[in-house]
# Entry
Amino acid sequence: MLKVSSSLWFEKDVQQAVEFYVATIPNSSMGRMTVLPAETPSGPPGSVKIIDFKLADQHFTAMEAGPFEAFNHAFSISVQCETQEEIDRIWNAFLTNGGVEEHCGWLKDRWGLSWQIVPRALIEMVADPDRERAKRVTETMLGMVKLDIAKLEAAFRG
# Structure
């Protein structure tokens, strides 16, 4: 069976990162960890680790293979939350673990990976056929760091 998975390249600490992710995001699990037994461009045998894992039932592969590539905003993981409590819990977990706040519901974790912690309702609000309502929500979101569902809904209602 064909399988598609996003692959994440970590300089170091891949196991710590994956353990944190699966502990923070509901319905997540860590799968197999493989240590490559041969010399690679990243180093001697044993220097490359590959971990399969799921975040909310989405498959990922993480590789620890040295400092050749860095994360950037071109790739992020979007976590769509149902409640403000869920947003707050996940957001605070990342910050407590060395993450850095950015704008519009974005943050970077301590490994440099970008995350979007957003209310699921936001997706519907910005896609609303009433473009004035969608504009108000968008403008409100653009002024936020961590997203606030009540404020976004108030902007949507006008």
About this structure: The chain has a mean pLDDT of 95. The chain is about 35% helix and 25% strand.
